Request: fold
Amino acid sequence: MNMKTFIFISLLVFNSIVLAECQSQRVYVQVLGSGGPELTDGRASSSYLVWLDGKGIVLIDAGPGSSLNYEKSGAKLNDLEAVLFTHFHVDHSADFSAYVKGSYFTHRSRDIQLFGPESNHLMPSATEFTDRLLGKQGVYPYLQDYISLSKKSNFKINAKNISLTKHDKQSVYKSNDYSLSAIPVHHGPLPALAWRINVAGCSISFSGDMSNRFQTLAVLATGSDILIAHNAIPESQKGVGRKLHMPPSEIGNIAQQAKVKKLILSHRMTRTLGGEQDTLAKIRKYYKGTVLFANDMDRFKPENI
Ligand SMILES: [Zn+2]
Reply:
């Protein structure tokens, strides 16, 4: 190998290493809803917005109250590229139609990509959710143009269902700037997904609601710069709550297994609010990294390594 070739190859390797590093100054995740379904927790329900280069590009869940926080965040609906649903419980999805109607008053001309789980006997799929909400026979038929291909509208909502059959990580979407992947998680009898976004060399994972009976989240979240996990129950929780959600020790175990760089606790409910010291102690038995409790409007940047 001559010197020129050596320098060329060295530069290629150097560039690929630099590009693979998290460009943390370009990315953050903003909490639009840090609460659960209660109307007594003083918080909007579940929702997160991923920002890249000053634009809010991907929304994860759209719980009640979160659209007001979206407005407060200064995000522009024209910049929103994709909406990901972890599942279709009210506290994760009720504000979605507000985004569709809000977009009518913008110059939006680009389609919105929407992804969510397949259906089962209890819940609609992502495509059924949009049809039943916005379709001709839906709750808001006056918005049907946004999902009907035969109607003229400035943009469409392209809904897609993510399979739950295999409990494997699935690549869902790739653009020039980011990629999305999902994995089925156990949330009682409900179809549910955890999500991961890789953007500008950084990675952010979202547990959604889950009990970890499938033990899939650690696989998806491996090496994430940020994991947002739902702290819906205390360690002592029994009954239905425990069937649907994971206790703090399980969250700590997952964060440790996945070696995430930062753990954010959200979906905070009255049964966990005030118990932060206990929650932290249970997590610390497994995970020694940074742990933070989310509040509405918080912005979290990936770690600078
Ligand atoms: Zn739920």
Residues 30 and 215 are 26 Å apart (CA to CA). Residues 14-18 have pLDDT under 50 and may be disordered. The pocket of zinc ion is lined by residues 87, 89, 187, 209 (CB under 6 Å). The longest helix spans residues 3-20.
